[in-house]
Amino acid sequence: MTICEFCVERRPDGRCNYGLSDPREMSCKYFNTNIEKFCANPGDFVDAAQIVAMATFFHFKRSAMKKITLMAKRETAIRASAPVANTSN
């Protein structure tokens, strides 16, 4: 598994938008991600700690880990502030 598989800069053909080759480590200067790269089903997202644990498991490094942590915290805040639909009648 490479960092590119979690990056939104990866094109459908598997190539990088910046023209970079796959890095050997789980770090990249241009790494950019979103929650969909970690949770294919939005309902699977629990909280930021879950995403950070996944990133730790995959051995993300330095700035990539910071970006993932920020993205996960942002997603947690968005979901906490979103109104909950009332399904009871």
Considering the chains and any ligands shown, give keywords for the structure.
single chain, 89 residues, mainly alpha, 2 helices, elongated
What's the number of helices?
A: 2
The average pLDDT score comes to: 89
Number of strands: 0
Query: Tell me, what's the shape?
Result: elongated
What is the H-and-E element order?
A: HH
Q: Which structural class is indicated by helix and strand composition?
A: mainly alpha
Q: End-to-end distance, in Å?
A: 47 Å
Largest sheet: none
Low-confidence parts, pLDDT < 50 over ≥5 residues? none
Helix-residue proportion: 25-40%
Backbone CA Rg? 15 Å
Strand content: under 5%
Concise summary:
This protein has 2 helices and no strands. It is mostly helical.
Textual characterization of the structure:
This protein is mainly α and 89 residues long. It is built from two helices and no strands. Helix 1 (48-57) runs antiparallel to helix 2. The protein starts with 47 loop residues before the first helix and ends in an 8-residue tail after the last helix. The mean pLDDT is 89.
List the helices and strands and how they pair.
Blueprint: H1 48-57, H2 62-81
Helix pairs in contact: 1-2
